[in-house]
Amino acid sequence: MIQGSQRQIFQNIQNYGFLTLASIFVLVPFIWMLSTSLKTEAEAFRIPPTWIPIKPTLYAYIYMWVKKNFGIYFLNSTVISLATAALSTFFGALAGYGFSRFIFKGRKFLIGFFLATQMLPGVLLVGPYFKILSKFGLYDTRTGLVIAFLTICLPFATWMMKGFIDRIPDDLDQAALVDGCSRFGVFFRIILPVSAPGMVATIIFAFLLAWGDLLWVLCLTSTESMITVTLGIARTVGEFRIIWPMLMAGALLGGMPAIVLYLLLQRLLVQGLTAGAVKE
C-alpha cells in the first residue's frame, strides 16, 4: 500500500513537472513578445535586455493600428479567412458525404487525387493562379484570395469531413429516407447536426490556414487596401532595420483571433479531434 502510494506520488511529480516545463516552453515566448511590445524602440535593443519595461508604452499598438492601417489588414484577414473556412467546410462536408455514402466509378482514384493535391507545394501554384485571376479580373481582390485559399483548404476539409461522416451510422440515413427525406434533406437535417464537432475542427483548421498564409497574399495582391495581417506584419521587417516593438505588437494582435476562436470552440474542437480515437 505504501509502495503504491509512493509510486502514485512519484508519477504525479513527473506529470506536473512535465506540464510545468511545457507551460514554460509555451508561455515564455509569449511573455517576451508582450514585454517587447510595451517597450520603446531604444529599450528593445538594450543590453542586457529587460523583462519588465522601464517605461511601458502602448505606442507600438497605436502605431500598428493607426499609422500602418492594421484595422484594414485585420478586416481583410477576417473576411477572407471566415469565407474560406465556411465555404471549404460546407463543400467539404458535401463531398465527404458523397465519398462516404455513395459507391461510383473512380471513387478511390478521386479520393487519392484529393490527397495528392496536398503534396504539391504552394509556390508551384502561385504562378498559374496569378495568370488565371488576372485574366478574370480577380487579381488583388478578396474574392480571388478566397478562391485561391479554397484550393488549399477544400481537399483537406473533404478528407476531414469524410472521416467524421464515416462514423455516422448509415441506419440514420435510411430511416430518414423512409420517412420521406431526400438526400439533401438527410444531409442538412441529419449529417450536419451530428457531425458538428467535426465541422468545428475543420473550420478552425481552415481558418488558421487562411489566416496565417503569407505567400499567396504576397503574390496575389498589390494594393494597400488588400493587405492582410500576415503581410502587414512582414512589412515591419526592413532590409536594414527591424522595429521590434511594432513587430511584436502586430504579432500579438494578429494572433488574438485564433486564440479567441479556440477558447470559444475548444470543447467542440476536442470532441472533433478525438472522434476517431475509440474504435466501435
TL;DR?
This protein has helices at 2-37, 41-44, 59-67, 70-101, 107-117, 122-135, 142-166, 170-178, 183-194, 196-211, 215-220, 229-234, 244-273.
- Main β sheet profile: none
Radius of gyration: 24 Å
Span between N and C termini?
A: 36 Å
Uncertain ranges = 276-280
Topology:
Layout: H1 2-37, H2 41-44, H3 59-67, H4 70-101, H5 107-117, H6 122-135, H7 142-166, H8 170-178, H9 183-194, H10 196-211, H11 215-220, H12 229-234, H13 244-273
Written account of the structure:
The chain has 2 domains: 2-37; 59-273, MetI-like (MetI-like fold, Orthogonal Bundle), CATH 1.10.3720.10. α10 (196-211) packs antiparallel against α13. The protein is mostly helical and 280 residues long. Helix content is 75%, strand content 0%.
Supply the key terms.
280 residues; mainly alpha; MetI-like fold; 2 domains; 13 helices
